[in-house]
Amino acid sequence: MNRRVIGLLLLAGLIALGCIAAGCTDIPETTSGQSAPPTGEETPGPSAEGAGNVSAGNNRFAADLYRHLASDPGSAGKNIFFSPYSISSALAITYEGARGTTADEIGSVLHLPQNETLRRAGFAGLDAVLNSGDENYTLRTANALWAEETYPFLPEYVDTAARWYRANVTNLDFINDPEGSRATINRWVEEKTEDKIRDLLPAGSVDPMTRLVITNAIYFKGTWVKQFDPAETTEEEFRVAPGETVRVPMMHRTDEDAIYGYAETESLQVLRMPYAHADGTELSMLVLLPREDNLTAAEEALDAETLVDLRKTLADQRVRVVFPKFTLETTYSLPQVLAAMGMPTAFSDAADFSGMDGTEDLFISDVVHKAFVDVNEEGTEAAAATGVVMNLASAPMEDRTPVFRADHPFVFLIVEEDSGTVLFAGRVVNPEGA
């Protein structure tokens, strides 16, 4: 596996963007460990080519989503942090059950490889690498399917999720116990993210019409190769806008050993701060610092090809680094954003997820995402989770409201309710008669 491919995926997907901002009745249930491939089948090994294609697509999606979030008036002056890999993973599993226009739109927005083998092997390969372990840092990602216990999902869909995405299937009672089901899913997310992501699914997001929830969780904790000395951290001004500052703790690394990958352009300074690693894939934080206060130069560099070019120009040299400590926690509900990016059908009654259940009755009711990052002298801790909630479309229902038309003789009683005692009884044959 090309380490540069994986490094780019993670820095674009988990760390760098935050710094710029500074199932069913017929299917067996699996509740522990990772799902095994269907009986008699073996999951193909990691595909470097597929991983490269999935990585490139993920980074294009990262740039697209960042721009949409940044352009939202509600984001003006606010931090942004998210994990495009987490969102892509959850929606890729969703894509496996989409058909027709629904699939075309999701695939286009996520920039998924059209070749089925490359796409699936790419995600499987990346998942294997990200979970391969390293003695110097913690990095893991996990997928899961949560299915309504009475709903007949297609075995082919569940097998695909298990084989290629290691997505466990757990049957829940969404119909009779939606809140209990929501709590179960949220506990899984908390466990996978070391309690950094809590209440991923907010109250009311799961209801009796929910048939499937697809989740991804990703967690990372690593130390800098060149850690900062806490004794050198001081309170200093940070410009939040021209003429406006706040005081924050700023870390300093300016000694002779402060050797970092560094590059600069007319509008940017670029710094790579690596995390300690042993045999695992190399991880680093890439920081894009505009020379002026305007973030436009940095945001324009988020283009996947531009990032590749910038990384190629990095050269190790001594750099005097002054960098803020910060902690970010973000929450996003993404249906409107994803629809605006080009996949509106998935959220409508016209959605076609027949690859999941053989019908066109399911649609995405919500895509929720939460992310957390803490950057300090020692290193970085980051976590994110994504939930895709699939609901049953509301079909036109027969009006069963009772009609009580007393236009013919009737009997009536006057009853004392506590005891049920009939106090009066009578009948009406003609309301105008004696």
From TrEMBL:
Give the protein family. Answer: Belongs to the serpin family.
Residues annotated as coiled-coil are: none
The uppermost taxa in this organism's lineage are:
Archaea, Methanobacteriati, Methanobacteriota, Stenosarchaea group, Methanomicrobia
| Source species | Methanoculleus nereidis
Task: Quote the PANTHER family the UniProt record gives.
Answer: GH10112P-RELATED, SERINE PROTEASE INHIBITOR, SERPIN
Residue ranges occupied by any Serpin domain in the UniProt entry:
63-431
Q: Where is this region: Disordered?
A: 30-54
Gene3D superfamilies per record: Alpha-1-antitrypsin, domain 1, Antithrombin, subunit I, domain 2
Q: What is this protein called?
A: Serpin family protein
SUPFAM superfamilies the record matches: Serpins (SSF56574)
